[in-house]
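User
Class, as today's exercise, I want you to study this protein, comparing sequence with structure tokens, and judge whether sequence predicts the tokens.
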Amino acid sequence: MPAPSPPHAQPQTADECASTDAARRRPVAVNWIEERGKSVVAEAAVQGSVVKSVLKTTVEALYNLCVKKNLVGSAMAGSVGGFNAHAANILTAVFLATGQDPAQNVESSNCMTLMEPINDGEDLLVTITMPSVEVGTVGGGTILSPQQGILEMLGIKGAHPTEPGANAQMLARIVAAAVMAGELSLLSALAAGHLIRAHMAHNRSAPVTPASARGEGGLLVKAEDEAGVEEKTVSRNVSAASLSSFSK
């Protein structure tokens, strides 16, 4: 009589399969609680001198912003696993570049970002926890040439020759490291006031104005500089080049 199969090899029941599939590509708490795919924690200690000279802010400002935005703000919004600044942006970029399923950024972007002062408040400790990163280096979009090129550059193309799953584990670590860098960058830009100034300076989309504010057959364009606000009504068919004086 053959020996019984080990528990992990037993086929799933229909209910178990349905429950497992119901947690995919959805913002569900079970992925945060029980984990899914790869669970990764990344941390870095950033010297206070670097925070000031490179990130143009302070350890205290980053700590306060992280608490108010990532923790309090996310809790007030009823977030499920979204206690971060913009983990989904970075993760999705890496997913597209490495041939992952972009729809799985929903559960894979579960992330808690924490920042706290260390060394008597002189330096900053950044920690991120991502409990459900679903990645792989075999099959799916990883067979596409551009994505294979990225995986090869990272040294994790295909299956690991001696340790099954090791390449996928390394990819999860790469995702976490990239997310941590993105979190530090965005929160620093917010704390220093750079984010709003950058949007105001480089956002080149046409302003949305009500019909009453438009000139006859034209569009009211406003430009502000040190001298004040200048207004000009331009034709709807005017070329972008003629608006150069308003986009400095």
The two ends are 82 Å apart (CA to CA). Residues 166-192 form the longest helix (27 residues).
